[in-house]
Design goal:
Layout lengths: L13 H32 L5 H4 L1 H24 L1 H20 L4 H29 L5 H30 L3 H4 L1 H15 L14 H19 L1 H4 L4 H23 L13 H31 L4 H29 L2 H21 L6 H25 L9 H29 L3 H18 L1 H4 L12
Helix pairs in contact: 1-5, 1-6, 1-8, 1-12, 1-13, 3-4, 3-5, 3-9, 3-16, 4-5, 4-8, 6-13, 9-11, 9-16, 12-13, 12-15, 12-16, 12-17, 13-15, 14-15, 14-17, 16-17
Amino acid sequence: MTEAAAPQPITRHPALGLTALVTAASLTGIGLSIMTVGYPALGEAFPGVSDPTLSWVTNIFTIVGAATLVPAGALADRLGRRRMLLAGTSLFLAGSVLGGMAPSVGVLIGARAVLAVASSIINTAAVALLLATMAANRLPLAIGIWAVAGGTSSAVGPPVGGLMIEWFGWEWMFWLNLPFCLFVLVTVPLVYGESRRAENRALPDPAGGAMVAAATALVTLGIVQSDPWGWLDWKVTGSITAGLLAFGAFVRRSWNHPNPLVELRMFRFPNVRRGNLAMLIFASSWFGMFFGFTVIIIRSWGWTPIEGGLAIAPLALFAGVVGVLIGRVAHRTGHRVFILPGTALYACATMALWAVLGEEPDAVAFVVGMAVIGVATGMVFPSLIAAAVHDVPPHQYSLATAINFTAQRVSTTIGVALGLTFVTTAASASRAIDLLMGMVVVTALLSLPFSARIDTRLRHGPS
């Protein structure tokens, strides 16, 4: 199956076209990260809603995203990347309007589910359009800009979102998306022709997507309800057990289905297996910390949303910039030389913050700690992503990437659920920090046995 048989249009305005694609893809980073400062604001706006219920505004985004990324990519190949990018952006616009006008948390959760579907469509269509239409000599620069934009958009979300919330209210977490959506909708038709695969891919197993969503939702339900129900309550243990069983059923179905949601046979490649398992664990640690810390500094320390957003922003900003720099050399040295020191730095910086933070805020220590953890994250995250596709033949890159994206979305959901549960149920800021940091350090260290066996060094001699 090849794309060479289908002539692909080259945009006449590559700079403007790349700007439009990066803007579209940034909607996901902003939409996910802005919720870190938005979550406490929603608690104030809907005071009668419990934290476990409110957490679904965040969790639904990653649950739905995990189930829809792969089908969205297949649809983009079949129906056209430009068409699907415009459809996804229009849906994101509609979801943003629905969220901005939401009268209740239930409507908010529905709006976030719409945004998750739209995000899956946008991301898969945008990256496919970039690869298919960008001139070969400009592609390395375009991919570098794309990678930086991913980190910076996540860094921009908290401070800009905090500013909008502080000045205009929580609704502006959603209204903020509108000008970006309109820019994409106007620009993309002007600068891009249609692009699709020479041969259509069959749509992947829809039941597999439902099983991933159900498994993740059940485990998440058990975690977020652990405080009101109790960790040993049968409803908590039953929910988590049912989720694990559903995940097991998904794995079995994927092995036997002719067109599964996730091609698990890719796990026969050692680096695919080790990279994704390490990512699943490490990402849970990172996202739990990202969301948990923001709740602590706004709820417990009394910082404003804009102060909280600015304080947390170095985490994602340094991760994005360092990740690009690491990627320029890791393909020669191997990725393990960055993953292992990065994980060690991440754990040590976390423990240092654990030792100095408490009931009273320490702004300098916190911001410096976020910057150091961001550097460590930039060493680990992109390297794990690259390792997860390293051994894969080029024509199977999309399958390997789909596995990694799904692992990231599932781990984000679990990490956020754990982080928010520990933070919102603690009796004090110091207790919240103890619970959160303990979870972060333990999960990070658990990823090391898988990371230590990753080997992506260049091999010389006959293949």
